[in-house]
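Researcher: Next sequence.
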Amino acid sequence: MSDSAILGVVLAVVALVIIVIILAASLYIVKTNQVAVIERFGKFHRMAKAGINVRIPIVDTIANRMSLRIQQMDRVISTITNDKVTVDLDVSVQYRVATSERIPSRSDGSADNREDSNLYRANYALTDVDEQIASYIFDAVRSTVPSKTLDDVFAEKDRIASEVNEQLSTTMQEYGYEIVRTLVTGVRPDGEVEAAMNRINAAERMRDAATAEAEAYKIGVIGKAQGDSEAKRLSGEGIAMQRRAIAEGLAEQRRVLQEAGVVNAEEVMLANQYFDTMLGVAGAGNTTTVFLPGGADGVGLIGEQIRTSILTAKAADGSVGVAGAAGPAGSIRTDSSAGITPKH
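Model: Next structure:
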């Protein structure tokens, strides 16, 4: 092969390599939810959308790749409340580049390729986006919280977050950013203040518990008293009904005895009650003590009472007429027609 042929092959290979390099440098890929900022000779040229894009090597450069996803920034902000309490607020801000306008693939003079577009301001207006947004967050929080007491801060976290979100949205809109949401995730007062608040809460809970226990005890006592009162009332009514029934039975018994011609009906009834009582005492299995008269004449008195009761009971049957009482020696005088001879 001649020298000219070899030179031609070398030049062709070099040209091919240069073409491949140029093509490789001309093509670039932008990922989904990203925007590439293209500058031409150092001046803003256009915004490139997601996909394969073409540029002029050396002439066009990729100045930046901006994410269109929602980003979150967490900050702890110390401030003072209206009642002079130092408090730390945990604030989370979710933000993103405003993309309400169409993103073209070439420089066609559309909105996003103008120097007043949101994407343009988001890329060129702020040097350190996170720190500068954080400074606006601090300013918004410290202009809102000092007008509220500590209790209001705890009770109105959502309202504080809404006010901070409104202020940030108005401010950051000028720089091409959209504030999606602002959250106050924690309120932490000074340690001593927090301990005092815990003691106050504990005291309130103990007071509520004591009140509840006292109320429960009161309800229990009242219920028991009402139950006892009702039981006594019913018991009294039962006793009254029992006595009424006994009185009615005695009255009926007296009437029957009087109709039968018994003169001393009351004595007969007392005798019957006496014997019924004695039978009840004798028949009770747990009876261990019987009270008797303690004098020397007690036995004679008991016998006299028994004899008098028996004679009175017989008189009720019409077989004996009682004429007198016992004498000093215990004799009994009876009517001779009864056929009974007194014993001395």
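Model: The first strand starts at residue 27 and ends at 30. Confidence is low (pLDDT under 50) at residues 102-109, 319-344.
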